[in-house]
Fold this protein.
Amino acid sequence: MFTRVLERTRLTLKFLTRMKMDLTEMLEIDHMVIDLSYLLFKMTKDPREAAEIVEFMVRQLTRHSEVEEELFYPACQEISSLRDRIREGYEEHRQIKKHLGELRNAGDLPYEKLKAQVESLMAVVRHHVGEEEREVLPVARKSLQKSKMQELISQVVESKQRRLEKLAA
Ligand SMILES: [Fe+2]
Ligand SMILES: [Fe+2]
């Protein structure tokens, strides 16, 4: 049930903001969905549901990091005041990926171990997301031109389509 709530929340937020969403807002929505999934993970008492939520979190975090690394971070590196912060961002993503690797087969892990691993993952994620929202997104919003934002959004949409086509092939 919780995974359905998550999926619907993600789609609703996307729908509500679709008309005038820029890339930084899209990334914030991802952050919100990840936070919400963590909350639901803590609420559920059902180990099978917990594993499903973790699978959802792994997919979301993987896709979100890809968009940032392939499109958003390179654009931010053009802004001199963000260069060091973005370098740290890549490093934090590496740490997050290490945790995600350990969670790939969430359903096979004993529940207690799963809980401990999600806690360590989320400690890194929350720190990283906090810095992005405080230090990166506001500067990017101000400094990246509207045309650049539009270009980035079209690239995100194209890369999503490519991924869907690959899945369908
Ligand atoms: Fe990030
Ligand atoms: Fe992010």
About this structure: Residues 111-143 form the longest helix (33 residues). The helical segments are 2-17, 23-43, 47-76, 83-102, 111-143, 146-168. Residues 27, 31, 64, 68, 129, 132 surround fe (ii) ion (ligand 2) (CB under 6 Å).
